[in-house]
Amino acid sequence: MKGINKVILLGTVGDAPELRYTVRQHAIGTFPLATHRHIINAKGEREEKTDWHNIVMFGRMAEYFASCLKKGSRVYIDGVLEYHDVPHAIYKDVILHKTNVEAKRIEVIDGMVLHPYPEDFPPLSYIENKKTESEKKNKKPIREKAGNNKSVKKQNFSDDLFD
Fold first, then answer.
1. What residues does 81 pair with on adjacent strands?
2. Domain locations in the chain?
3. pTM for the complete prediction?
4. How would residue 93 be classed by pLDDT, with cut points 50, 70 and 90?
């Protein structure tokens, strides 16, 4: 039976996106997103609670939104949850469990939609075909075939990405 992994968030960017590159020069962008909700406290009073989410973007989407999002921007994010176990930097026997939202679609709703559809980004195969022959020889392909004939995207990134 298939499952569903879908996240829809509407919130405020907490800080300007940070853009990093992997060893193979693939862009990774991260930023915090604040969402607000109302809860009833122990006294029966209504109060606002802020939840913070770690948003991760990859490829051209990361490069684009790292240049145009800023702290305070209101955004709509459609994505999926991803989980990572990261060893603690000081305590070697401690494993940190990190939860991120991988953005598949982002819309800026500050009165102007900057980029509503990720389909407008060229596919990775198009970008790979535009590279020179010397670049192709020096790099391994980023897509490999899995045993069940499904394409698997390999991503290498450092552990400090999710700190």
1. 101
2. 7-162
3. 0.65
4. confident
